[in-house]
Amino acid sequence: MPHALCRPQFLVSLAALAAIACAHTPLYTQPALVQVKACTVLKAGMTDTTATHSTSPQPPDTSRIQTALSRCLSGQSVVLQSDGNHSAFLSAPLILPRGVTLFLDRGVTLYASRNPRDYDLAPHRCGEPAEPREQPNCKPFLFSYQAAHSGVLGPGTIDGQGGRAAQVAPSWWQRLDSAQSHHAHIEIPALISSYESQNFIVRGVHLRNAPGTALALYKTIGLTVEDVSIDSASTDAASPGLLLSNSPDAHITGLSTHIAGAAIDLRASILGGTSRVAISGLHVTGGAGISFSDDVYGNTSRIQLSHASITDASRGFLFNLRGQRGGPIHDITLQDVCLVRVREPLAVEQESTAMQTHLPDNIVQMDHVIVSGLGRLQPQGIQPDASASCEESRDTAIPAPVEWSIDLSHLPQPGTQAHLTVAADGGAAFRSVQAAVDALPDAGGAIAVQPGTYREVVTIRKAHVRIYGVDPDPAKTVLVFNNTGPKSAGTFNSATVFVEADNVSIDNLTIANDAGTGKGQAVALAVTADRAAFRHLRLLGAQDTLFAAARYCYGDYGPCVPTRQYFGDSYIEGNTDFIFGDSMAVFDRCTLHGIPGREVMYTAQGQHYAAQQSGYVFSHCTLTADPSDTRITLGRPWRPHATVVYLNTRIDAPVIPAGWTEWPRFGQPSLPTATFAEFRSTGPGASPATREPDSHQLTPAQAERWNPRRYLAEHDGWNPFPQN
Which end of the chain is more exposed for a tag (fewer CB within 10 A), N or C? Predict the structure, then answer.
């Protein structure tokens, strides 16, 4: 049997590993061909020298990269390429949309801005000493929020410029060193970060000189990291290379690190654990090895590490047993690991005790974990064995080298006609709504949809688009699909229609997700855009019919980028949490109808924090339900600061006397901090005297605060209401 582990005295790329004959290790001879569907190809306009010495207050490539990302369709990539001697891009922080990847071609380097003010989430916060708080202070350089199947690909490089000074200001690493020497709290940006973006992928790229963590993944299910190298010129900046927090089902293959901090930091959070993580082909040079769990939260479990090497490191494995909230560490498997010149192969931190060098039983299983020159590592410590060798026969797993192919056949060809027609029977130029959206000019336009049924997913990423059914009866023109959360990589990727660009309106249509009751979350319409107006719609689903949400948030406590949305004279049906999200939304003269299911909850509003611009206002609406529904509530708080107000609403459904129901968050009740209110509710379900004590019956003066026109007007006077 061929042996598994070559001598890891030096760090090499996976492409180089594939070309080296390590004794008799079987290596892939045929490279894996990965095809990238380009939606845009951007050419570099700078050299490395000009990018790293730039003193421009506005990084020159920010706008064009972000515009390209925002307009790209799901399943496609924005490609960065060299142009002659120019191979560098310089940008401020960027947002990765749902389903879109950023591809860096060979020889390209994307440099991150060195200006701390580009990363501020609150004025003058990022990179400055400040009191710790729940909200982050810094934007990541590349950020993906609730954006399934997004990521970063290619053989190019992303350089965070962590050690380069920002003009006359200190560098990120100098700021960090200074704060640590004064025992002050400071936050610096991650290079790439994902929050709740299922199936996020990072493949092939070289990440260097990250200001803070190179890859920070939060609440991200199904992460893939493959053939990635992370290195840093700093020998002091101790941020981890890869942080997984509350991120289950990760697959990490062929990761190489050469940094001062931990190569991988696996931890839980208040939101949940990190489990079912498979790591193979890991090569660590220097730094602090691999860390399991933290001081507060345990629940790091079912982690399998195999075919790994750790060389010239201060530590091999750190198990932090202090955190027990959520459960202990368990089911860790370490197999075929070679440690060479590692000062502390195993460290264990326990509450109120000194650092240990052994683990309690039933936490970790170690199979062929060799400490070169010393013996075999076991949970009880090193078992001396002069014959133990990393050269023993084992199979290995080295990723195949990758050949990237760029497919240019999907480059968009925006049209010149701003008025298009769609007909399912072929009686117009377009048979699908998405094809018509793609054919509009970048400046937007109008699409008339003839009666019929259109089974498709529609994504609108062009601003100033109006889509309307030609027949005023919305039941005659139907957009329908049957995605569900698990099938489509999460709730936020399951919609039939996604509205992600500002100033979009949709009228006279039925938008449905027909996955059905009992299939879990299945969104009909997802709106993360500002100034979005919807009139005379039928929105049909079961659980999570309508997602009316902020554009994005930088974590569970924000801060969030607000959006405003108007729903007029529309019919919305569902059962569990069927209107949910955290936008500023007004529902004007709408009918909300509960369909049979386990129970009916009209709303699950999700305002993240008290000061967020967020909340649902229902004005002159009617609430109905199927006679078979036995438990009906006005809503429950998705998050502790949920905000829902019913104004002049007729409640014909037999809503429970308390009106609202609890949804505890982190073991604490949410109703006391939510804003749930009614003003002049009528009908059989109206019962002011029996309502939940933490809800409110508004006075006329209090209700005026929620005046729908004033609520949506905000700073720019937006008025989507009928003029008559």
Answer: C
**Cβ-based neighbours of 510, under 8 Å, separated by 6 or more:** 474, 475, 477, 478, 479, 480, 537, 538, 539, 540
- The full DSSP string for 503-552 is S-EEES-EEEETT-TTS----SEEE--SSEEEES-EEE-SSS-EEE--SE
Concerning whether 544 is annotated as a catalytic residue, the answer is: yes
For the chain, the structural domain boundaries read 1-30+240-412, 32-194, 452-713
403-431 burial, b if ≥16 CB within 10 A, otherwise e?
A: ebeeeeeeebeeeeeeebebbbeeeeebb
CA distance 221 to 489: 9
Q: What is the mean pLDDT of the chain?
A: 91
The pair of structure tokens assigned to 653 is 């459904």
CATH entry 2.130.10.150 includes domain 452-713 = no
Tokens of 719: 């008025």
Residues 6+ apart with CB under 8 A from 29: none
What are 304-347's pLDDT values in tens digits?
A: 999 999 999 999 999 998 887 777 899 999 999 999 999 999 99
pLDDT digit string (tens) for 500-536?
999 999 999 999 999 988 888 999 999 999 999 999 9
For the question of residue 694 being annotated catalytic, the response is no
Q: Hunting for tokens 């200190």 — which residue is that?
A: 170
In CATH terms, 32-194 corresponds, of 2.60.120.560, 3.40.50.300, 2.160.20.10, 1.10.287.130, to 2.160.20.10
Candidates 159, 265, 530, 577; catalytic one: 577
Report the alpha-carbon distance of residue 298 to residue 275 in Å, rounded.
11
Q: Are 372 and 339 in contact (CB under 8 A)?
A: yes
Q: What is the pTM of this model?
A: 0.93
Token readout for 245 is 């927090």
Domains 32-194 and 452-713 alike in fold = yes
Q: Do the beta carbons of residue 556 and residue 522 sit within 8 Å?
A: no
Q: What is the DSSP string of 359-391?
A: --TTSEEEEEEEETTTEEEETTEEEE-TT--TT
| Selected catalytic residue, list 544, 556, 582, 629 | 544
3-state secondary structure of 466: strand
Q: Which residues of 308-325 are buried (b: 16+ CB within 10 A; e: fewer)?
A: bbbbbbebbbbbbbebee
C-alpha to C-alpha distances, 567 to 176, 459, 648, nearest whole angstrom: 48, 19, 16
Two structure tokens written together for 3 = 């042996």
Distance CA 544, CA 251 (A): 29
Measuring CA to CA, how many Å separate 221 from each of 199, 275, 563? Answer: 6, 10, 26
Gap between the Cα atoms of 499 and 563, Å rounded? 12
